[in-house]
């Protein structure tokens, strides 16, 4: 009984929240419509009414305009995000001891996969070098406004640290002279790099490129799996097992094909640049692709060492992974 | 089984049998509960494993009469019969002893293979996820050496764009070649059951032989639990987690071999030996990951995160988005995987697609509070409040508002992290505060307000404390690391002109989930959430750190 009541309450609450969501959807649709906008901005004809009603009207209208402005801004932001795929925003660091008064510059990188926007990746940058130089009263120098990656949500298979070191080097070291004496070539090179100009645009571009490549590679792996019919493999296997007794006299070619069937394709490293391929008869292969999806190498190992023929069969002269997908789809 | 034992550099084979009376076998097996013991035995009898865990079976052609009548556990005829045996054991109730005796004296009386022991040990690890203390290391690429003699130490290549790759069998092969010939190890890989991890169990024996000879009881004082090392490789992530042997609590890190030797000189010799074995092993790991022929060399760098909680490690050093977005920043990383119930997960996981034109409700606004009311935990605590609101006096209402505000602030600072029940807690956090003592009338020392809240704060007692002595070396190291940053040096110069008093303040937080505890204190208003320094939210993802200017200066405290 009690659980019934609880369920009912949960149901009702779910209904309430879904209705609220609907309400919000309708609100935003209505309020961003050009006609609504027009109505709001129109000068309302002076009507004869009591002062209090006029006050409430004005207040309501203010609220509506406010909300309309917010929606407008949001719609614009969405438009920018949809078109530019690399947008910035400002954020605030809640830490009371945060550098630069908590000012944070956010980079938002949109990634599209399978005709859907994924959750964007964020890089949050701050200026940790600014306060020190200002505090000493030396005024602003070139190094003071340098950015540094503060927080980010980039997956660890994207070499963010390397990119940041390349495009967002820190300010030149103060003790470059004394450091140069004892340090070797490496130190000097580091100092040179540190003094270099930062290039946020190139950093963002390079980072986005890496992210998009990564997602493309993941997508290619998924396509490969689909082409090799790995998703529906479970059913097929069950059918095959059931039908095995009846089809004892199946042709040589079917057997051959079954042996040559791929049973698994999985990314073998963090960046999905290497794929492990497994055949039904126990052969395993490793496909290495470049950042952009060109096939670098394919090695297939069978029971008696390397199986060159299987490798050739799979690739068929393809130079890109997409070609392999096409081949597999055609074969199936 | 080989008849002759010759010293070799090969690893211990998985099929090597250990005498069931060996103390290690009893120790490993008796740690398990009855149910996991049975499930392990069933795993052994599984088709995939049985070749490495052959039970004692009766020959079919053997005569029935030949059977030993005294045998309390008559040998089964086939693995199938054994499986049924254990299944029936699983169904009925009984003591653990019954199963244990059956395994040791009956079905595996001729010995358990190292593989079986490894499986049992891993089962214990799954049963008791916090039984090991893990420290996280980052795999860093090294610059190609400049001089051919290789005399200068290789430097970390910060410009490199290579993401280290890990191939289990190659790794093992190379690791074996780095282990000294008078040490034998048994390796066993296993994929973690619930977390995206690959666990490597390394079992170290002090023997030059890789045959039965190595296991003969009395030959060495081997089979010490401290000689089992676990290494966990998170999927798709350039980090590595290494467990510390249980018996030794001090920090063994790759970079602090000097500290290790100092410690081992003090401790008993046996402990020292096993520690140096571990050190050897740990040194071998980056070398095994490296591939000099491909000009890829790596080193391990400590990331100042030590915890017993693997889930936390995967969260902060895994392949996902949450690595560098802890605390309040987690709203940027939130992918909706946090919500347990379906509806909640949908709501919380803001997809943030630009095609959604609905104005997003800012965090902490009305909608979020609706969500909170749905949370069973929070709803219970505040059920009576709205109804009684009318009867509240002014002061009560104020306090009501204050608690509400505190909750909101906690949400802003911690985001979705630091929940008591999220199972991602660290159990110990060590912080050194390096800020100069504030001038009289100025602001108070950062972190002073939290002393009363959490358990203990040590002040200047490091030298007298025997445990603190060891830890201090670790801290000093961090300070040195921090000193390498040029901006820090500038600060030193800056403050050197006006000498200030810098008290040596160390804070240690202890508990089952430290940051959830701090969050609760913020929520209840003990800690002022708005003035609380950022490192108290755990957003840096370190458990050892030095605080300077109110910000943590651990290993690459912020961002990259």
From TrEMBL, chain A:
Biased composition annotated in UniProt, kind: Low complexity: 35-56
Keywords from the named record: Centromere, Chromosome, Nucleus
Region (Disordered) location: 35-71, 173-198, 236-255
A Pfam family matched in the record: CENP-O
Biased composition (Basic and acidic residues): 182-198
Compartments (UniProt record): Chromosome, Centromere; Nucleus
GO cellular component, one term: Mis6-Sim4 complex
Family assignment from sequence similarity: Belongs to the CENP-O/MCM21 family.
Protein name per its UniProtKB record: Cenp-O kinetochore centromere component-domain-containing protein
Organism of provenance: Dichotomopilus funicola
Phylogenetic lineage: Eukaryota, Fungi, Dikarya, Ascomycota, Pezizomycotina
TrEMBL record, chain B:
Taxonomic classification: Eukaryota, Fungi, Dikarya, Ascomycota, Pezizomycotina
Name of the featured protein: Centromere protein Chl4/mis15/CENP-N
Domain of life: Eukaryota
Organism this protein belongs to: Dichotomopilus funicola
Biological process annotations from GO: CENP-A containing chromatin assembly; chromosome segregation
Gene3D superfamilies assigned: 3.10.20.720
Leader sequence segment: none
Composition bias, Basic and acidic residues: 456-468
Extent of Low complexity compositional bias: 247-265, 377-386
One Pfam short name: CENP-N
Region described as Disordered: 246-270, 325-386, 435-473
């Amino acid at each position: 009984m009690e659980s019934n009541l609880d369920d009912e309450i949960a149901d009702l609450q779910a209904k309430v929240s879904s209705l609220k969501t609907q309400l919000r959807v309708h609100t935003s649709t209505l309020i961003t419509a050009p006609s609504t906008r027009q109505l709001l901005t129109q000068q309302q004809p002076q009507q004869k009414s009591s002062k209090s009603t006029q006050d409430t009207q004005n207040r309501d209208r203010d609220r509506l305009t406010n909300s309309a402005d917010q929606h407008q801004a949001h719609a614009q932001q969405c438009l920018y995000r949809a078109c530019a795929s690399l947008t910035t925003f400002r954020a605030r660091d809640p830490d009371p001891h945060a550098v630069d008064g908590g000012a944070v510059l956010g980079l938002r990188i949109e990634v599209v996969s399978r005709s859907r926007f994924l959750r964007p990746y964020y890089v949050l940058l701050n200026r940790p070098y600014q306060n020190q130089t200002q505090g000493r009263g030396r005024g602003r120098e070139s190094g003071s406004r340098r950015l540094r990656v503060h927080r980010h949500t980039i997956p660890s298979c994207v070499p963010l640290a390397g990119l940041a070191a390349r495009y967002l080097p820190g300010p030149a070291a103060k003790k470059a002279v004394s450091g140069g004496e004892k340090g070797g070539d490496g130190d000097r090179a580091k100092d040179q790099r540190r003094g270099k100009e930062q290039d946020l645009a190139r950093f963002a571009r390079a980072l986005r490129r890496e992210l998009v490549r990564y997602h493309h590679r993941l997508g290619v792996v998924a396509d490969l799996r689909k082409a090799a019919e790995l998703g529906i493999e479970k059913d097929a296997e069950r059918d095959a097992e059931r039908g095995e007794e009846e089809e004892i006299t199946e042709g040589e070619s079917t057997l051959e094909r079954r042996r040559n069937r791929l049973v698994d394709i999985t990314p073998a490293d963090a960046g999905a640049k290497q794929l492990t391929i497994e055949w039904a008869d126990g052969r395993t292969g490793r496909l290495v692709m470049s950042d952009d999806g060109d096939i670098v190498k394919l090695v297939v190992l069978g029971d008696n060492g390397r199986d060159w023929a299987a490798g050739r069969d799979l690739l068929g002269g393809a130079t890109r992974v997409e070609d392999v997908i096409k081949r597999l789809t055609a074969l199936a | 089984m080989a008849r002759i034992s010759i010293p070799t550099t090969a690893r211990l084979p998985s099929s090597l049998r250990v005498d069931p009376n060996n103390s290690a076998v009893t120790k490993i097996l008796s740690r398990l509960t009855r149910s996991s013991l049975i499930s392990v035995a069933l795993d052994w009898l599984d088709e995939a494993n049985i070749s490495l865990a052959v039970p004692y079976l009766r020959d079919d052609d053997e005569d029935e009469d030949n059977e030993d009548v005294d045998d309390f556990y008559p040998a089964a005829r086939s693995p199938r019969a054994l499986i049924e045996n254990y299944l029936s054991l699983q169904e009925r109730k009984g003591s653990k002893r019954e199963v244990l005796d059956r395994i040791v004296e009956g079905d595996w009386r001729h010995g358990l293979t190292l593989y079986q022991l490894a499986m049992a040990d891993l089962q214990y690890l799954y049963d008791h996820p916090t039984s090991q203390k893990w420290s996280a290391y980052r795999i860093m690429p090294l610059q190609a050496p400049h001089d051919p003699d290789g005399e200068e130490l290789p430097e970390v290549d910060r410009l490199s764009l290579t993401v280290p790759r890990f191939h289990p069998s190659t790794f093992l092969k190379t690791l074996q070649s780095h282990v000294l010939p008078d040490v034998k190890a048994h390796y066993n890989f296993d994929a973690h059951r619930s977390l995206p991890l690959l666990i490597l169990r390394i079992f170290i024996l002090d023997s030059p032989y890789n045959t039965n000879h190595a296991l003969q009881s009395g030959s060495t004082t081997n089979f010490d639990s401290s000689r089992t090392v676990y290494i966990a490789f998170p999927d798709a992530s350039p980090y590595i987690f290494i467990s510390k042997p249980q018996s030794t609590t001090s920090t063994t890190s790759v970079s602090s071999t000097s500290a290790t030797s100092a410690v081992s000189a003090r401790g008993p010799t046996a402990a020292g030996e096993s520690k140096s074995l571990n050190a050897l092993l740990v040194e071998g790991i980056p070398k095994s990951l490296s591939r000099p022929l491909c000009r890829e060399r790596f080193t391990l760098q400590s990331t100042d995160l030590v915890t017993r909680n693997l889930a936390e490690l995967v969260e902060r050093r895994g392949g996902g988005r949450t690595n560098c977005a802890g605390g309040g920043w987690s709203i940027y990383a939130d992918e909706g995987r946090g919500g347990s119930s379906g509806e909640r997960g949908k709501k919380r996981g803001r997809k943030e697609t630009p095609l959604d034109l609905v104005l997003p409700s800012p965090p902490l606004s009305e909608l979020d509070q609706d969500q909170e009311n749905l949370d069973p935990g929070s709803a219970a605590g505040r059920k009576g409040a709205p109804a009684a609101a009318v009867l509240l006096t002014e002061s009560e209402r104020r306090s009501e508002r204050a608690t509400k505000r505190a909750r909101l602030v906690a949400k802003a600072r911690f985001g979705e992290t630091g929940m008591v029940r999220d199972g991602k807690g660290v159990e110990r956090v060590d912080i050194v505060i390096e800020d100069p003592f504030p001038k009289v009338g100025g602001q108070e020392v950062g972190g002073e307000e939290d002393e009363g809240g959490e358990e203990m704060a040590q002040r200047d007692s490091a030298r007298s404390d025997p445990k603190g002595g060891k830890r201090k070396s670790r801290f000093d190291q961090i300070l040195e690391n921090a000193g390498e940053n040029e901006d820090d040096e500038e600060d030193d110069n800056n403050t050197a002109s006006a000498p200030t008093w810098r008290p040596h303040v160390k804070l240690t937080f202890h508990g089952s989930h430290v940051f959830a505890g701090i969050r609760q204190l913020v929520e209840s208003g003990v800690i002022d959430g708005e003035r609380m320094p950022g490192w108290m939210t755990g957003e840096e993802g370190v458990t050892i750190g030095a605080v300077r200017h109110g910000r943590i200066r651990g290993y690459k405290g912020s961002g990259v």
